[in-house]
Structure formats: C-alpha cells, structure tokens
Design a protein that fits this description.
By secondary structure, the chain is of the alpha/beta class. The protein has 13 helices and 7 strands. It is elongated and about 75 Å long.
C-alpha cells in the first residue's frame, strides 16, 4: 500500500483517486471544490501525509501547474517526490524539476491517456524522470495502468521531460486519426450511395485494419445521434497538436497529417472565413464561377 497526495479532482483526477483507492492505496485528495476535496489546502495535504511523501498534480497545464509546483517547493521536504500528470509542455518540466531539486525534492513528468474511461479501463502512462524516482512510484503507476503486461500500458520514456514529450506526440497522432475518421464519415454521408452510414462504421469494429478505441467511441456517438445533428462542428485544441507541429518543424520531420488535422480544427471555428471569401472571389474573377453573397 502506498500513500499518495492527489491535487486536482476534476474529470480525470477524481476517477484516478477512485481507481487508486480500489487498488488498496491511501489517497488524500485536494481540490478547490469543497464537495470533492479531502483537505482544505495544500498545506493541510502535506501535513496529512507521512514523509517521505509522493504528490501527484492533475491541474491545467501552464501557469496553474507552475504555480502549484512553486507552492509545493515551499511546502515539501527533502526526499519527497512530485509527479506532474497534467498535459504540461515538456519544456516546463526541467524548470519545475530544477526548482524542486534545489530543495531535495524529486520530480516525474507523467503523460496520462485514458480520459473519463480510465477509472474502469486504466490509463496509458508515459513517464520521464530518474530510474530511482520511477521505481519508487511504480506501485502507483501499476495501479493506474490497464491490466496486462506493464510494457503495454506503461513506459519509462527517459529523463525529465520525456514523458510529456511522448504524450504530446501521442496527442498529435490522435488529432490525425480522429480527423481521418471524421472525413470518412462525411464522405459516407455526402455521397448518397451508402444508406446505413452508422451501420457501416459499426461494422468496422471487428476484423478491419482501421478498428480502434477511437472508432468504438465514434460508434457510441452515432448510436446516440446517427447523423450527429445535435452537435455543432466547432472543435477546440488543447495545445498538444500545436506543440507537436512546432517540434516537427524544429526537427525537420514532415507531419502533413497532423498539421492538416490541426488546421481543420481552426477552420471549424470560422463562421465566415476571410480566406474562403478570397478563394470564392478569385474563382469568380478567373472563371466566372458563381458566388454566394453575404446574407443569402
């Protein structure tokens, strides 16, 4: 049994606490939401845990994570270990690790995949840090990962930063896969050849080379709304796709699929695209192609 402090009890953090507790570990959680928190502050969380402590942080990436790590650098003691399980940019990890190392506190960056289904199915984990720190936290990782061989649901990717870098690339791939399914769905709908689009996609779930968990989730969505008419085609991006492309550029690695998927998300947010207005104007100028006037 391991004792763990868990900060951030949102959609993933709450379920992670439940999964860890079900595995027999003692988890003390902190969240701003009084309905789910176990303690009233980070200081109380630290005082509740026995030293040497393990703290897992699951808060939004960026300033929220940086501020949380800074607070813990002033609250934790030498020999404690902090794990950042959010979607931080990998370049933040060395900064956080150095800040904590000055106080003798260890640091692991953990890329976590599994979403709201992780409580029951387990979480895919990609971690960065020293071998000693990773080994110390292994009971926690083993409780969170899916059942089966460890190497199929957990990887020690390398030193600090490697876990979040791996998760960044993982999410970039996810962008491309989802976009391919989306374009296939749209073509099936538009061609007026296939009468049972939802049935065709459901029929891909077994035996075909495109079967995957993401496909299963698309089938689930189509079961609830066969033509997806209840949704607006507006898609945000949480940052990892942009970071993946920046690293592809920095390393001269062509990534046309991921870039196209990211730009498709940008396009989804434009009610009236200036670029498409320019394309329409050019087609009208050189070819006399019909244009649709604004407001029609």
């Amino acid at each position: 049994m391991v004792q763990l402090g868990l900060v951030g009890l949102g959609k993933m953090g709450y379920n992670m606490r439940e999964r860890l507790r079900a595995a027999g570990h003692e988890v003390v959680g902190y969240d701003r939401n009084p309905e789910v928190t176990d303690v009233g502050s980070l200081a109380e969380l630290v005082s509740t845990l026995d030293a040497p402590r393990i703290i897992w942080v699951m808060v939004p990436s960026g300033e929220a994570t940086r501020q949380t790590v800074k607070e813990f650098s002033e609250l934790l003691s030498e020999g404690d270990l902090l794990i950042d399980g959010g979607n931080s940019r990998y370049t933040d990890d060395k900064v956080n690790a150095d800040l904590l190392a000055a106080q003798g506190i260890g640091y692991i960056d953990a890329g976590v995949s599994g979403g709201v289904w992780g409580k029951d199915n387990g979480y895919g984990l990609m971690v960065g840090g020293s071998a000693a720190d990773v080994e110390r936290a292994m009971p926690v990782f083993d409780a969170l990962r899916p059942e089966g061989p460890r190497e199929e649901g957990f990887s020690h990717a390398g030193p600090v930063g490697a876990g979040h870098f791996a998760k960044m690339v993982h999410n970039g791939i996810e962008y491309g896969v989802m976009q391919a399914y989306a374009e296939g769905f749209e073509l099936l709908e538009a061609a007026n050849v296939v009468e049972n689009v939802a049935g065709v996609i459901k029929g891909w779930q077994r035996g075909t080379v495109v079967r995957s968990w993401l496909l299963d989730l698309l089938v689930r969505a189509l079961d609830e709304d066969p033509e997806l008419d209840d949704l607006e085609g507006y898609v945000e991006d949480s940052g990892e796709g942009r970071w993946t492309l920046e690293e592809a550029i920095n390393n001269a690695v062509p990534a046309p699929v991921i870039s196209a998927a990211l730009f498709a998300r940008f396009a989804s947010r434009q009610e009236d695209s200036a670029a498409m207005r320019a394309v329409a104007a050019l087609r009208n100028q050189f070819g006399g192609h019909a244009v649709r006037k604004a407001g029609e």
